[in-house]
Write a structure and sequence with these properties.
The protein is an alpha+beta fold. It folds into 2 domains: 71 residues, Sandwich (Immunoglobulin-like); 120 residues, TonB-dependent receptor, plug domain (Ferric Hydroxamate Uptake Protein, Chain A, domain 1). It is 15% helix and 27% strand. It has a 5-stranded mixed sheet. A 4-stranded antiparallel sheet has the order 3-2-5-6, with no helix packed on it. Strand 5 and strand 6 form a beta hairpin. About 3% of the residues have low confidence. Its main location: membrane. Keywords: Cell outer membrane, Membrane, Signal, Transmembrane, Transmembrane beta strand, Transport. Belongs to the TonB-dependent receptor family. InterPro entries: CarboxyPept-like_regulatory, Plug_dom, Plug_dom_sf, TonB-dep_rcpt-like. It is found in: Cell outer membrane.
Length: 248
């Protein structure tokens, strides 16, 4: 009787050992991951749940991974809902991932021509916007002198004993001539002056626009465009564009 009992215990121990080995057996699981339309899904992460054992699908959506027979595989990808699939001793697992429904938050886009004054030499959008409030901060009555203070690329200097430029200050952007600056008032081209700079002044031989004929009290804001921001205006704006917005 005792021998039979010992034999039964020994047999049970052997069976338990074999069962443990069977459960710990490593299987090579292969398969293909497709999307909602049946197309191959490359770059899908295939991970054994609870471990760092994982792989990813190739360009055809195929994968191969070694896991225990009782493991669970987690399939995940950007824009798709993750799935968990139990191996259950299988060696081939094909999975179809469904698209994940995500709601995008509201996006607000603002332009570079803000109503408040902004002047930044290093800005990627080379536009200087000078508001009426900024204009009032300077004790100047001429528009050309105000722009000299607030626009880094604008230059205008008063001339003496040099024909009509005593009254019409030649204005330039980026050191180029006055006739290469396009002046707009409310988006429309401003006419040039009748004065030809013939003496030794800035822009000799050119005809510029007299900015000082525009009263600064009526200005709502001034926009100075240069480089790429003035490209849409063509060859008339080689130096840049000065757009003066007047109040109603």
């Amino acid at each position: 009787m005792k021998k039979r009992l010992l034999f039964s215990y020994a047999l049970l121990l052997v069976l338990l050992t074999l069962a443990g080995r069977a459960s710990a057996q490593i299987l090579t699981v292969t398969g293909r991951v497709t999307g909602t339309g049946g197309s191959a899904q490359p770059g899908v992460t295939v991970l054994q749940k609870g471990t760092t054992n994982g792989t990813s699908t190739d360009s055809e959506g195929r994968y191969s991974i070694g896991v225990p027979a009782a493991a669970t595989l987690v399939f995940s990808a950007v824009g798709a809902a993750s799935q968990q699939v139990a191996v259950d001793g299988r060696t081939v697992l094909d999975v179809r991932l469904l698209d994940a429904a995500t709601d995008l938050s509201e996006v607000v886009v603002t332009g570079s021509r803000a109503t408040e004054g902004r002047s930044n030499i290093l800005t990627t959008a080379p536009v200087d916007v000078i508001s009426a409030r900024e204009i009032k901060l300077f004790a100047q009555t001429d528009v050309s002198q105000i722009l000299t203070y607030v626009a880094p690329s604008f230059q205008s200097s008063r001339q003496t004993i040099s024909d009509g430029t005593d009254h019409v200050d030649p204005a330039s952007l980026r050191g180029l001539g006055p006739d290469q600056v396009l002046v707009l008032v409310n988006g429309k081209r401003r006419h040039s002056s009748a004065l030809v700079n013939i003496n030794g002044t800035v822009g000799r031989g050119s005809v510029g626009t007299d900015l000082n004929t525009i009263p600064n009290a009526s200005i709502k804001r001034i926009e100075v465009l240069r480089d790429g921001a003035a490209a849409q205006y063509g060859s008339d704006a080689i130096a840049g564009v000065i757009n003066i917005q007047l109040g109603a």
